[in-house]
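Our working data are protein records whose layout never changes between entries. An example says more than a description, so a record of this kind follows.
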Amino acid sequence: MKERVLEILKSSDKALSLEELDNALGLTTVQEFQELQQVTKELTDESILYHSNKDRYMLIENSPLIKGILRANRKGFGFVEGGDPSRQDDDIYISQENMNGAIHGDEVLVEVTSKKNVDRKEGRVLRIVKRNLSTLVGEINFHKGTGIITPDDKKIKMQLEIPRENALGAVDGHKVLAEITKNISGNRFKGRVLKILGHKNDPGVDILSVVYKYKIDDTFNDDTIKELDDIPEEVSEEEMKGRTDLRNQMIFTIDGDDTKDIDDAISIKKLQNGNYELGVHIADVSYYVKEGSAIDQEAMERGTSVYLVDRVIPMLPHKLSNGICSLNPGVDRLAVSCVMEINHKGKVVNYNIFPSVIRSNIQMTYKKVNMILEQNQVPEGYEPYKDALLQMKELADIIRKEKHERGYIDFDVDEAKILVDENFHPTQIVKRERGAGEKLIEDFMIVANETVATHIYYMNLPFIYRVHEYPKEEKIRGFLSFVSTLGYHYNGNLKDLSPRTTQKLLDFLKDKKEYKILSSLLLRCMQKAVYKPENLGHYGLASKCYTHFTSPIRRYPDTTVHRLLHTYLFNGDISSTTVAHWEEKLPYVAELASSKEMASVNCEREVEDMKMAEYMEDHIGEEYEGMISSVMSFGMFIELDNLVEGLVHISEMDDFYHYDETTLTLTGEKTHKVYRIGDRIKVRVVKASREDKTIDFEIVGAEKKEEKKEQKKEHFFDKFKGKHKFHKKRLTK
């Protein structure tokens, strides 16, 4: 009956009473009417239906109520994001007194009560639809025998009380992972400690606290550990049967200096017809990680390895990731090889995908490969491979040219690398290198991913794709509108938002002094790449068909792709039972992998923010050159040349500044000084907080305004600070 009720209300242009629903359903008995009453109550409790005070029912999306996620601020207020995008609902401001017991992250039902000001709605929480927070990380301290946890996330406004017997022996100052078990009253909750992470002052505990905030486990469960007993230390002759033996070929790996989990190896050969034969050989993880095993189940739940400043939290245990699966030099390893013939135009004209056994000749590093490719210097031990590397560079240039011609978009956004000492304290922040070697591997992996995806796509079998959909036209138009305020007028055709259109737009901006910031802003206009069981193409790569095949040690979708290659190609199993199994399973795998990837990215970036703030704590009072990366009503964010970003608050500026949201500028009332995105200025570090993950600057030479105006602006900033922080993370990270 539920489905029929929903269908009727969906097609109705007004709210319906129980009697009208009764008639529409054609009910004839008292029992059926009672069932209708029960169904409407359940749907109302689930916040699917809205029950008006006139005793009528309608779908929530058609009601005056809005369902969304509460994003709280550390000062107690919050914003609810939700509603139908087509209705252009603004985010709704929820004051502290209108929270109704809701906390950060809750899915809530909100009633709009008034306009807070000209452009902002205000509302109150009517009901908590779903409490998404079940665990939290915080510091425990005991008072009269009861542990009180202070959440690390200042946006979570609750008092979590832990009875001594449920504290696992924790003492004052321990950072713990705790489960919320019961609501005592209001924002008082009862819970229990699940895990002690360490004392708050212990090295590395700060990072571990962020890890557990995102529900990432740094240890493997007992069932997984037990299964490792059956994993071999080396490849046997029996396991090589049925595989193509490539151990006598020149095959090698290129990775970072400290890489331990080596997924991919490469080989090259120049054919008599002038074409290149490129081999991409990927660790055959799925041979060891069997579907449904404990190792497989945990790998699927993890979704990805997480790469942090001071550690790697692997998707697979080290016996696999650094051992039998890693393509270490001088040892036999099982692989899945994709060998492609590529012509002088960068097109794959022939290929073969097959199970193999390889023996890598050498574990190269990007740094030393770049010495050969960029400086024509051959490091010791690399002499036998110089010609092969130069041939690979030729091919990589051809492939990159072909990608560019079809519309490949290279935003070329810098990334920071934070160096830490033995106590995990940051000592230096530098830009990550992206030299010829890094680009070469990127190009080779992309062409292998495309080849594998295209092959399975034309077999018309269930598969998992890496998709990146077209951007929304209104976002690109909004970006160009802003660019025009800088005096740059782009006359490209936006009716065709093909990758080449965006590529041409980037090329147009390349020689502008604000390019670095504008490239980052344009990137924010793009949709996020995700995993799906449907092929929707990859916009950023200008690829019609794409997957992730080349990193099965650290990404579960790649492991799944290998499993499908074994099933469909190597074992020839395309039975109706097999197809039905993967049609049912892949949507779940794709959705879970996408969500786990997002959690890992957010974790990695929060750790980076924390360590950048900790680094700047050692540099209070020092002066730096930087560029304005964002302008807000309460100040502006400055990105230093080492990619550290901090806030110049409006109260620290030398005049009363007016904010123009159209041009994203701040203009001084008396001085008429204008600050805009892309301007370079000199700043001084005035404050940094590892705990809050914030950095504050002041403009060198600027004097503060009078106290009265400063206080006025400080109040304005407090009102919107949390809102800005959420959007800044969501849009730029």
